Amino acid sequence: MHILLVEDDDEIARRIIAGLTLAGFAVERADNGADGYAMGASDDFDAAILDLGLPEMEGLDVLRRWRREGRALPVLILTARGTWSEKVDGLNAGADDYISKPFHIPEIVARLKALIRRTSGHASALLTHGRVVLDTAAGRVTLDGEPVELTARELRMLNYFMHRIGRIIPQADLVEHLYTIDESRESNTIEVYVSRLRRKLGAEVITTVRGLGYRMD
Questions:
Q1: Cα separations (Å) of 205 from 42, 88, 90, 112, 156?
Q2: What is the pLDDT of residue 126?
Q3: CB atoms within 10 A of CB 189
Q4: Sign (positive/negative) of CA torsion 87, 88, 94, 96?
Q5: Which of 25, 20, 12 is nearest to 159 (CA)?
Q6: What gap in Å lies between CA 135 and CA 27, rounded to an integer?
Q7: Rounded distance between C-alpha atoms, residue 10 and residue 53, angstroms
Q8: Which pTM was predicted?
């Protein structure tokens, strides 16, 4: 999953990026509100973590502008402002969830996964498609009840597909969601990972739609 982090504190950002990367997310960071707004308005993210006390543009202003412009991006507000009135302001501005500093990385991971599941229409952490079951909370995959070992990037790709069953996913979308901007982005590596998933989960699990992309039927 591709996450936008808008946080001006370098140490906090480092902790979050390290924790989310370990949990299988690809994270892009903006260190001020203006850049965060621009990235969230133009790039395709699965969710955003948004601090409120930001330079150049306040977090609530970033959020309000996204919502006015029709951006349905799930937003988790992360802030040191812990009063109930500030939480209400954030939720009324269009936030989907709220967590106060100090925080624990596992809670952020769990809340992000829940936001993404709800946005995709899934209430449970268990995603099932045919013989394949993905436990998004534990990061485990089974095929016919037997565990399947996947690499972090294979797991990230499968997660992306299973949140979009029946939809054609262009190769460019997969590149955006599997890699951060600092990583080498080569479209032919997508074919490699699709082939690996087919080998481990069955040739029929992902269909190639010629000229358009891939689909999990």
A1: 31, 43, 41, 26, 15
A2: 81
A3: 15
A4: positive
A5: 25
A6: 21
A7: 14
A8: 0.65
Judge whether 52 and 83 are in contact, CB under 8 Å.
no
List Cβ neighbours of 191 (8 Å cut-off, separation of 6 or more). Answer: none
Amino acid at residue number 179: Y
Structure tokens at 172: 């460019």
Q: Residue 125: how many CB atoms within 10 A of its CB?
A: 14
Give residue for tokens 């029929």. Answer: 204
Sketch out the chain's domains with CATH numbers.
2-119 (3.40.50.2300), 126-215 (1.10.10.10)
Distance, CA of 214 to CA of 90 (rounded, Å): 37
> What is the pLDDT confidence band of residue 70, given thresholds at 50, 70 and 90?
confident
Rounded CA-CA distance 171/206 in Å is: 13
| CA-based nearest residue to 74, from 57, 49, 37 | 49
| Per-residue confidence (pLDDT) for residue 9, from 0 to 100 | 94
Residue 41 · residue 88 · CB < 8 Å: no
Place of tokens 């997660």: 159
Strands (E), 116-167: 126-129, 132-135, 140-143, 146-148
Strands 126-129 and 97-100: unpaired
Q: Identify which has the larger pLDDT, 44 or 15.
A: 15
Strand order across the 47-50 sheet? 26-30, 2-6, 47-50, 75-79, 97-100
The answer to whether the peptide bond before residue 102 is cis (omega within 30 degrees of 0) is: yes
182, 203 in Cβ contact below 8 A?
Answer: no
